[in-house]
Design brief:
- This protein is α/β, with parallel strands linked by helices.
- The protein is built from 18 helices and 12 strands.
- Helix 1 packs parallel to helix 8, helix 3 packs across helix 8 and helix 11 packs across helix 12.
- The chain is globular.
- The chain starts with 10 loop residues before the first strand and ends in a 5-residue tail after the last helix.
Amino acid sequence: MARQKLFSTKNVGILLHPTSLPSNDLCGTFGKPARDWLKLLSINGIRYWQFLPLTPPDSLGSPYSSPSGFAINPWFLDVNDLIEEGYLSHSILPSLPKASEVDKQRLSFSLAELRTEILGSALRSSWSEQDPSRHQDFNSWSKKQFWLEDHSSFMQLKKQFKGLSWWEWPREYASHHFIALNKWKRLNQEALLEHSLLQWHLDRQFKNLRSLADELGVYLFGDLPFYVSKDSADVWSNRGLFSIRSNGNMQTQSGVPPDYFSLDGQLWGTPVYRWPIHKLTGFKWWRRRVSRQWEQVDILRLDHFRALDSFWAVSGDALTAKTGNWSPSPGFNLLRLLKKDFSGKLPLVAEDLGVITPDVERLRDQFELPGMKILQFAFNGDESNPYLPENICGSNWVVYTGTHDNPTTLGWWANLTDEEKERVGKRFYKDIYSPSWQLLEMALATEASLVVAPLQDLLCLDDNARFNKPGSTSNNWEWRLYDLDETVRNALQGYGHRARIWKRGN
């Protein structure tokens, strides 16, 4: 199926992270679960599949605080495809952790990690038996991945030192000492091979998935965090690019200033960029980072876009974000180079939520980037609220009922006051009988080029299905869809039908 040019017509999409795809395994994968999902989207005229960063998550399951900005989460590796291709034998299946009925509805991070270890070991053990042409393909791919060696080393050192952060390792490894590391690598070749093979297979499987998406006319819509985790291969191997000392202490950390939601502001615990060094290198690291993403997806949401204009910089030893200050970013120069890298196009969506200054808006509009609108933010009684449908001017927007950080729309509705519910109801001139679908209808009626709904909203699920609650550390990133059953299929069919009524899609 031929695909249209991005944002050339009005369309709809769904937000669902691959971990949530239904599967008999512990987690959704890049295999049959994802292929079945893509086919369902295509059949119903849903042209965009949006997901969160595909990178490995942190210990709490968050893909926004990854140990690697370039690697893919090995939880997504499909074992059945590996068996069918002859990379593994069926004998591995009994050794893999099994998904209980509970695991089919909530993701177990510990079991997913155990599964990764077993798969990595099995792939390495069977590697010598593989055809030489496969070895050649792997070696050719590996040489092109500048990040791979540091990623594999970082993950193995972290495993070797029982999960300690890199600044707690022995000094010769923490400092990324060239001679010491080379000696260590020679002694750990087999273990390092496991990490590299996992990434190669993930890359292969995702490329196959992207080819299928191309055939089906579905765009893959990715996500890129602005900052990277302090305890990551990226910071460990490129420390000069980040505001961090050799002992792991941050000179300057990221966050946002005090606002209506937080009197102390927010400290994010990630080092800010040493932008002068990035400029001296022609933004090489950033350009490689974004290029890696564009190898995987058609369009990319840039989280915390406003930091490309200026960022809130807080002393590394500060206990709150109150004492920070706004510092300028060379975002214009970076975006100009990225546009050049991508043949004059810039398939980015600016996450421009919150308090945004005219300078940030000018930067977004100068590069003609779509912004974001969240309807759950619209009904505070302020008629100038930029998220109200009538205040969403023009088509260069992506409109959401809510995002992965929001309550489900049913959960949002349940927590509104009677006054707020009445305010929403007046906009429909009738009772609210299905908050999720009625809010979605409001989104579809806008002029925005793209409307995206979390699958939980199409299924009218309450906050037990919420994916993430910012500021909390439990029950996040775990929700899973139990099955692609009739309820799901009917919801997707209904979404496609309403989209066509509003002249979205084909």
